[in-house]
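Batch job 17 of 40 flagged for manual review because the log was empty.
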Amino acid sequence: MQTQKNGQVNTKKDFVVRFSGLKTGSYDYDFELDDDFFSGYGNENLQKGKVVFKVVLEKKERLMKFEANFSGTLNTFCDRCLKPLDIPVSGCETLFVEFGDVPEATEDDNILIIPETEYQIDLSQFLYECVATSVPMRLVHPDDENGNPTCDSEMLKCLASVSVEKEPGKEQEVINPVWEKLKDLR
């Protein structure tokens, strides 16, 4: 089991799985990603949070399969009102590790080829990518049961005062002046 121990900060070595000497079969690992882990990647939307991983390693003679199930919460900021926002994340990802003469890049992001001489693998980048790809494109506070935004009301007022609204039922068409001259040719 790999987890944070005695209040110590997770380091990269906390996410290293030593597979040398393991017989073929299935092995379970637990990992916890915390604020210290996320801050090391420099992504402003993924600076804080707590995500727990359950990873099952299925080791075969020439192949390893890492099945990662995760869930947790990221602490970020709302794209609309800029106030703190907790985003739940969860998912399941698989990483296949094959042995080859030299490490190679593959077209499939879920396949990694490592040298025959390797005896361990660092899963930190894989775990980070699992979380990063599960984050929604738009980070906003959810609407309440009536469909009203739950964002900071003062910020919503400021946004409403500077937004340009269309007349109801009328589309505003923006036309390039070059194309406007062509209308006269009809």
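Reviewer: the log was empty due to a logging misconfiguration, but the result itself is present. The longest strand covers residues 84-100. Unflagging and moving on to job 18.
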